[in-house]
Write a structure and sequence with these properties.
Layout (H helix, E strand, L loop, with lengths): L20 H6 L12 H6 L1 H13 L10 H6 L16 H10 L5 H24 L2
Length: 131
């Protein structure tokens, strides 16, 4: 599928588009920027979920810095103290950030997913028991 085949193509201004390889290679995203709205892409792309979590935790505050695709793919968890970079175009800063955040392996992703699902079940149980 090409970028212009997306039903949101004319109204979307997301700087990182899963259908545009160039935006994933060179794009920069701030927490106050738009995020992909295409449902089929959003479901399967972990980095889009990470963007949403960053926006939620930081209230869309752009002062925490910018992120690129490589950074978003390496973030394991999003907390209130998350931060990006002031300027991604400075290779030493980006290189240091990437060294401090190693790639996520599939085994650790399975563990993270299990913990997330357990937390979700616990929250649902708490809601049901308080009814």
């Amino acid at each position: 599928m090409k970028m212009y085949d997306c039903p949101k193509f004319n109204i979307c201004s997301a700087p990182l588009c899963p259908l545009n390889k160039n935006s994933l290679k060179n794009g920069e995203w701030y927490p106050n920027d738009e995020i992909c709205h295409k449902v089929s892409e959003r479901k399967n792309k972990r980095w889009i979920k990470i963007q949403r979590r960053i926006q939620k935790k930081t209230n869309g505050n752009p002062d925490i810095g910018e992120f690129n695709f490589a950074m978003l793919e390496r973030i394991k968890a999003v907390g209130s103290k998350i931060h990006g970079l002031g300027d991604i175009r400075k290779p030493p800063l980006l290189r240091t950030w990437l060294q401090n955040h190693p790639p996520i392996d599939t085994k650790s992703m399975t563990v993270i997913k299990r913990h997330w699902e357990a937390g979700k079940r616990l929250a649902e149980y708490r809601v049901k028991s308080n009814v």
